[in-house]
Design goal:
single chain; 333 residues; alpha/beta; binds S-adenosylmethionine
């Protein structure tokens, strides 16, 4: 090694900034590479050993040379390994491919979480908003399963701390949290309300699979509209849903919820909050870049809106260490 040349490397420009930039770039490349291994189907296909020729015909890819270079890159990254003339997935590759949250993380971070910056020029120039929340709903739902046990623990606590005969889950998505509330309150009935018909069907199937279909109904439509004529409920949940509404529309939703709660009934709002943490700011940017008027709630503003709608706020708390996932619990006064 030429020590003098190495000295020039270290003294050239801002060495620390250069090292940090290259390290960050290499992490970004690894995320994109793993995301592509999942999106192209290559990682899953190599659960069964295959030559590049077989792999290309199995997945319908025309460019064999590029596929070979891609497989060799995945090999160098430890995701697949050679096996005679074939390749197969490694234990490390399988750990990612078999875990829905790990899969969703690589897919989401290589796609829209970074795509928002790749496309930001066009959006700053007045281009259309993004449609990730609609088109990537399944990935978003899978990724949110990461912290689900923390949310479920809070819900079980709230539901079992009061006599609960009926619950409602607004923006119920896959219905998993509605199921959690019904299991924690074995005598209760529940209603899930979901805007997206595909997610609503998924929720009904999930509830049925868990033997809860006799105690739960899933309504398709906009939360405030579908709440009319329903209730009274002892607990109303809004999990990861409030930021889908423009800030000015949130008090109206809380008032509607207040009107369908029984006296002393509880409102539980679970949401990622706007903080000065860089990832919270990033998430806020990502959802502001979507079509519609989405933005993360500031917890002080959210609290004031809930109180204005006729609730007493009992507590706001952070559900996860290091992440701004918050729960606000309020009682209808
Ligand atoms: C991020 S998902 C959260 C799903 C579930 N609550 C959870 O925490 O796992 C938000 C859901 O709210 C639904 N949603 C958004 N706005 C809605 C509205 N105004 N009325 C009903 N559902 C809505 C979306 O379709 C989506 O399924």
């Amino acid at each position: 090694m030429d020590v003098r040349a190495l000295g020039m490397v270290v003294r050239g420009g801002n060495f620390r900034a250069r090292v940090a930039a290259v390290r960050a770039g290499q992490s970004a490349v690894r995320v994109a590479m793993t995301g592509a291994a999942l999106e192209t189907g290559v990682l899953d296909a190599l659960r069964v050993p295959a030559t590049v020729h077989d792999l290309a015909s199995r997945l319908g890819y025309a460019n064999h040379d590029l596929l070979l270079a891609f497989v060799r890159t995945l090999e160098a990254a430890g995701l697949v390994r050679p096996d005679g003339g074939s390749h197969e997935i490694t234990r490390r590759g399988r750990a990612i491919a078999d875990d829905p949250v790990a899969r969703a993380a690589y897919t989401a971070f290589s796609d829209f979480h970074t795509g928002v910056y790749r496309d930001i020029l066009q959006q700053l120039d007045g281009g259309d908003g993004r449609q990730d929340v609609n088109h990537r709903a399944q990935v978003i739902a899978d990724l949110s399963r990461f912290m689900q046990p923390m949310v479920e623990a809070t819900l079980r606590e709230e539901v079992s701390s009061r006599p609960t005969r009926s619950v409602v889950d607004l923006g119920c998505g896959s219905g998993m949290l509605l199921a959690t509330m019904l299991r924690a309150a074995p005598d209760a009935h529940g209603v899930g309300i979901e805007l997206d018909p595909v997610a609503a069907t998924h929720a009904a199937e999930n509830l049925s699979r868990q033997g809860l279909d006799g105690r739960a109904r899933v309504l398709v439509g906009e939360a405030r509209e579908r709440l009319a004529g329903e209730g009274p409920f002892d607990v109303a949940l809004l999990a990861n849903m409030v930021y889908y509404l423009p800030v000015v529309d949130r008090p109206g939703l809380f008032r509607t919820v207040r009107d369908v709660l029984s006296p002393g009934g509880a409102l539980v709002v679970v949401t990622t909050a706007l903080t000065d943490d860089w990832f919270s700011r990033h998430f806020d940017l990502l959802i502001r870049a979507q079509q519609g008027s989405m933005e993360l709630p500031d917890m002080d503003v959210l609290r004031a809106q809930v109180e204005e709608a006729g609730f007493t706020v009992d507590a706001t708390r952070r559900l996860t260490p290091g992440e701004p996932l918050m729960a606000l619990v309020a009682t209808a006064s």
